[in-house]
Amino acid sequence: MAHVLVAKYADHLPLYRQSAIYAREGVDLNRSTLADWVGQAAWLLEPLVEAIRRHVFAAHKIHGDDTPVPVLAPGNGRTKTGRAWVYVRDDSPFHSTAPPAAAFFYSPDRKAERPREHLKIFTGFLQADAYAGFEELYNPQRTNPGPITEVACWAHCRRKIFDAWEATASPVAKEALDRIAQIYAVEADARGKPVHDRLAIRVAAKPLLAGLFALKRRVALSRFFDDGRLEADNNIAENGLRGIAISGSFCPCWAGGRSPLSLASVFRTPASLREQRRTRQRPDHSSRHRAGACHYRSGLDDRSRGVRSNGSGLPARVACCTA
């Protein structure tokens, strides 16, 4: 069973492929049998999953993101769409010794009540995209357990500006792209440094923000300049979701919203998060840098590299590897 789980969640090998591999070796393990094993493992490992979630939500800062996933709908002959959510604690970019971890959740929809339930014990900084469902959580009057402070994502902001530049060739949008590229160049120097060093390095980028046109989330986009624990973007969470993204797989869900997707919390902690950091730090020397872009393999702007994006930073045709 351990091998099946590791192959599924760490090596991203869907159960139907595992079944075929076993069949070649003369071992008859039907996909439904493997699915039953995964379901039983999800139940048995619930205490560990809950412990990981407590560790994630005890952080001062987390990254959050979600993506649509196709869900099997037995008897209907088709699939429906659910949501996979991830909240990542990863303080290693500023030399914290706290182990990185990721908490995964499944929900049948994207209602605001979903993140409200997920984050009911969290207080601190939440770095995320501009999803309206998070807005209620940023209410300064939130007292139980305390306020959540928004930290916006420059990668998402840049995508909107890139769309405008691509559609209109606007010189204003081009200037904004150039300035954001310079902000990321400074951030590359700050990555991996202690908190005080990160703040000192980022001072050079502050004047670049002042020259940008009006930004709806200017305050939230500026917070990383004044707190060395924060990041410029939410790529940590986006990369956490990429780890379970393989085309053609589906996410089963049982009564009460339980899903084996929660097991990803066990197998995405912490070695795979360290690997995604190494991937994130390798620059992409794309020819589109000439458009004022500053791309990293973490998906700063997939479309500018010829990959159609679905708005979450994931390629549009990618599905969730949970079956």
Q: Could you provide a short overview of the structure?
A:
The protein is α/β, with parallel strands linked by helices.
Structure description:
The protein has 323 residues and is an alpha/beta fold. The protein folds into 2 domains: 2-44, no CATH class; 47-323, no CATH class. The protein contains 13 helices and 5 strands. It has a 5-stranded mixed beta sheet with strand order 3-2-1-4-5. α11 crosses α13. The model is unreliable at 280-323 (pLDDT under 50).
Key terms:
disordered C terminus; 2 domains; single chain; five-stranded mixed β-sheet; 13 helices; alpha/beta; 323 residues
Q: What is the number of domains?
A: 2
Low-confidence stretches: 280-323
Q: How do the helices and strands follow one another from N- to C-terminus?
A: HHHHEEEHEEHHHHHHHH
Which structural class matches the secondary elements?
alpha/beta
Largest sheet: 5 strands, mixed
Q: Topology of this protein?
A:
Layout: H1 2-10, H2 15-24, H3 31-44, H4 46-57, E1 61-73, E2 78-89, E3 101-107, H5 113-118, E4 124-127, E5 148-151, H6 154-168, H7 171-190, H8 195-202, H9 206-210, H10 218-226, H11 235-242, H12 264-267, H13 271-280
Parallel strand pairs: 1-4, 4-5
Antiparallel strand pairs: 1-2, 2-3
